[in-house]
Amino acid sequence: MKHKLLSINKIVRRRTNETITEVRNITGTMANMSKETLKQAKALMKKLVPES
Known about the structure:
Layout lengths: L1 H11 L4 H32 L4
């Protein structure tokens, strides 16, 4: 995740229309990574904490 944030910073310095597209792609990737992490955390919680 840190690598993705640093790459956004590097790209934003260029400030072109292409930059906007690149930043959106990176943030989209980060959002997908976050969704996957949340999915894994929920699965782990189901294993560790049984529902009553």
